[in-house]
Amino acid sequence: MHVPPIPHLTAADPELARLVEGEAQRQHDKLRMIASENYVSEAVLEASGTVLTNKYSEGYAAKRYYEGQQFVDQIETLAIERAKSLFGVDHANVQPYSGSPANLAVYLAFLNPGDTVLGMSLPMGGHLTHGWSVSATGKWFNSVSYGVSRETGLIDFDEVRDLARRERPKVIFAGGTAIPRTIDFAAFAEIAHEVGAVLAADIAHIAGLIAGGAHPTPVGHADVITTTTHKTLRGPRGAMILSTEEHAKAIDRAVFPGLQGGPHNHTTAGIAVALREAAQPDFRDYAAQVVANAKALAAALVERGFDLISGGTDNHLILADLTSKGIGGKPAAKALDRAGIELNYNTVPYDTRKPFDPSGIRLGTPALTTRGLTEAQMPQVAVWMDEAVTAAVKEDDGTLDRIAGEVHDLLASYPMPGYKA
Ligand SMILES: Cc1ncc(COP(=O)(O)O)c(C=O)c1O
Fold first, then answer.
1. Measured from the CB, is residue 169 less than 6 Å from ligand 1?
2. Greatest CA span in the chain, whole angstroms?
3. Where are the domains of the chain?
4. Is the minimum distance from the CB of 91 to ligand 1 under 6 angstroms?
5. Please, what CATH class does the domain formed by 286-411 belong to?
6. 231 is catalytic
7. Which of 13, 181, 254, 373 has its CA 20 to 30 A from that of 171?
8. Rounded to whole angstroms, what are the CA distances from 40 to 153, 207, 367, 406?
């Protein structure tokens, strides 16, 4: 059963309610290992589903274009103050609708169309919005990309420096969507300062690890920091932009009125709750456990012959090239899903296959750590993954279904926030 219960929805729209219940059950029964996903707390769920969704609040606290902001102003201010205190920054904007608009706001704040941006290329682990060709950021700006070393799988700072010196970007993005190693924000800052670029750290994936002390912070190195709120930070789907005081006005103007209209106040409330949760001592334990689980899983996968990009992980995320297993990422991901293990197919650096049928898979431990799994279960997860990939090669659906049953049985002992059996 969905928690909090949805009796009104069930009565008013049983068809939709059935689908929501089905999704709750699916999230309960699957080992969810999509690196960008998590389970929010019931408090976050409740805050995100309140009457705040009824309210328009264009503008910022005490400077709105609509009346009736007596409570919304306080809610947004609470979220802002919590974000500032958690990350130790001068300024926070909690209005971006999601990570992509947050990054677009950085372009609007610091660049004009045609200006140069330097970001990590998508197939190497960067995000679409860091200037990739199919994104507006790649179409409207002169985008230059850096990657990782073919040998080590690590960011090649000599390449970043050479590109920055040659191309003189106005903005450099540090961060990405498939980076299994610690990001050296100080090294990026040195390069950005040398060429006079704004350093934007996109910490969407690792915000919760940073808040929990399990990854170095970009604060003090980056001029602006963008993040989603729904990955390791374990909040509702949304985003924030953090910055020094120097850039506060430019960022605020870019978000509203530059890109957006009214903020999603129900989401802002959910973000405020998630930030409060992330400031508690047990969130530090959570962040450390996410990394411990990923390291234990990576070691167990390597033992079973998986070829991991960079050889392992420092954070919550693992990127594996399945070429040595004799299967592409897509058929493997589909087989794993049937086996109750949910992850995504992904390009790997220097992939010779197409993005829709790449060589790799990407997986992570934020969600299963929220369920309460520890290092003790990671060898078993690696065994299941190995068996499922082998079964996929042999088209052995029986084995996949047997694993799905075992995954289901294991997860029955690990409660899911938002679901009651
Ligand atoms: C590093 C990074 N930045 C930005 C985004 C965009 O976030 P959203 O999907 O909320 O637009 C993502 C999403 O996966 C991401 O991984």
1. no
2. 64
3. 48-278, 286-411
4. no
5. alpha beta
6. yes
7. 181
8. 32, 15, 9, 25
Cα–Cα distances in angstroms (integers) from residue 237 to residues 96, 97, 352, 381, 411, in the given order: 10, 8, 33, 28, 25
Q: Helix H segments across 30-94? A: 42-48, 72-87
Residue 217 tokens read as 């912070």
C-alpha 15 to ligand 1 mean position (Å): 31
The residue with tokens 């949910």 is 342
Residue with tokens 């990026």: 188
In this predicted model, what pLDDT tens digit does every residue of 229-265 receive, in sequence order? 999 999 999 999 999 999 999 999 999 999 999 999 9
Instruction: Locate 204 and state its tokens.
Output: 């969407």
Q: What is the pTM of this model?
A: 0.98
pLDDT at 137: 97
Please report where in the chains the tokens 């769920």 appear, as a residue: 45
φ, ψ (nearest 5 deg) of residue 118? -115, 120
- Which residue spans within 7-104 are E strands per DSSP? 31-32, 59-60, 63-64, 91-93
Amino acid at 398: G
245 is in an annotated binding site: yes
Distance in angstroms (rounded) separating the CA atoms of residues 118 and 186: 16
CA distances from 104 to 99, 173, 353, 393 (A): 9, 12, 29, 41
58 is catalytic: yes
> Would you state the pLDDT for residue 107?
98
For atom 4 of ligand 1, which residue has the closest CA? 99
Measuring CA to CA, which residue among 323, 363, 365 is closest to residue 343? 363
Pick the CATH number of 48-278 from 3.40.630.10, 1.10.357.10, 2.60.34.10, 3.40.640.10: 3.40.640.10
- How far is residue 183's CA from residue 206's CA, in Å, rounded to a whole number? 10
> Please, are residues 362 and 306 in contact by the beta-carbon 8 Å criterion?
no
Three-state DSSP state, 393: helix
